[in-house]
Amino acid sequence: MRVYEVDHPATQRAKQVCLVRRLGVLPDHVKFVDVDFNSQRFDSRLTQANLSSALSTLWIWEGVTNYLAAAAVADTFDSIRQLTPRSRVVFTYVHNDVLNESSTFPGIVALRRTLAQAGEEWTFGFDTAELPSYLAAHGFQWREDLGSVEYRRRYLPPTPRLLRGYEFYRLAVADAA
Which whole number is the average pLDDT over 34-62? Predict the structure, then answer.
């Protein structure tokens, strides 16, 4: 199975260094594609990497949307739909209330401060209620949306400390329509 690992150029280099340190070499079945979602065309980078549009494709887009401009998020969804018409996308996002000062999510004030100090402030979020129509406008059918407590309960060991924190972080699943 061919795996395309797509990430920001700096993050991609760091991942490759870790893999070589751990494995001795980069895996042959993984194609590393660097892209700055805010300034480069996602679809052209993957076309250059010989992504096949004939195959069913699972996209795992984790920890990215909240750092992008709205236009880059929309462009990425459109590119995924055009590049791989038989695809499913699993992605994480933050609730858009996190982006405004009136948010009441636990721990968000400290997190905003940490992100600002790191120079990695969040710029984009979704309103959970509006997500199905947003996805439909980009050629996807919404399948599922889970909050952090729900997806942790489903996929992690039942340890109480693992179920808390980042309640504004969500996981969604959509299929190309």
Answer: 90
Q: What is this structure's pTM?
A: 0.87
Does residue 65 contact residue 95 with C-beta atoms inside 8 Å?
A: no
Residue type, 128: T
CA-nearest of 98, 92, 113, 39 to 69 is 39
**Residue with more model confidence, 101 or 65:** 65
Put residue 107 in one of left, alpha, beta given phi > 0 → left and psi -120 to 50 → alpha: left
The residues that bridge with 175 in the sheet, in sequence order, are: 88, 141
Burial degree of 174 (CB within 10 A; 0-12, 13-18, 19+): buried
pLDDT, tens digit, 9 for 90 and up, residues 78-129: 999 999 999 999 999 999 888 877 677 777 888 888 888 988 888 999 999 9
Residues 156 and 164: their CA atoms lie apart, in Å, by 12
Q: Are 173 and 81 in contact (CB under 8 A)?
A: no
